Fold:
Amino acid sequence: DTGVSQDPRHKITKRGQNVTFRCDPISEHNRLYWYRQTLGQGPEFLTYFQNEAQLEKSRLLSDRFSAERPKGSFSTLEIQRTEQGDSAMYLCASSLSGEGTEAFFGQGTRLTVV
Amino acid sequence: GEDVEQSLFLSVREGDSSVINCTYTDSSSTYLYWYKQEPGAGLQLLTYIFSNMDMKQDQRLTVLLNKKDKHLSLRIADTQTGDSAIYFCAENSLAFNAGNNRKLIWGLGTSLAVNP
Structure:
């Protein structure tokens, strides 16, 4: 297992286009998280899954954002009708359930909306 | 509310100790974490401490927790140029959550510059 992988690493898109990112967690991890990080900020929680169930969504997550984890393994994050304010690093993390378990982060997908 | 605060910058000389401080607000947090982020890289967990502990030492890293003041610090002994990075403090907060779902609340990060 090579850890959490995210694809693509970089994405440049025109405003108004839709984009989809993929995250492959560590295989035995049942929890998967999406965070967004802008320059000079810490990561902001977006949503998380336990297995295939989406248990929480942040108020930051507008209707243009949707995340899925259909089989409880990989996850996708789709942003529809992208806006310049969506430009950020989108981070995925996975962990086992239970308090204090370490969340392992992927390298992130850097989105630039032009 | 949920808030984690850190100083934004720290500059030290190689070989000196670095101390990065953090304050948090959610007294129900059971774990507090330090993550490291190097330029262009993902977040790497450095260490964490359970809230009923005062101190944890791991090689060059020492974490001190003052639960009464909700203050966390990370000390890096014999700081090296390879330690230059942004260090994030995070708490696993129950604030604003229904049920027992926790999420990590992050500080803005402290940018550590190590000068040779």
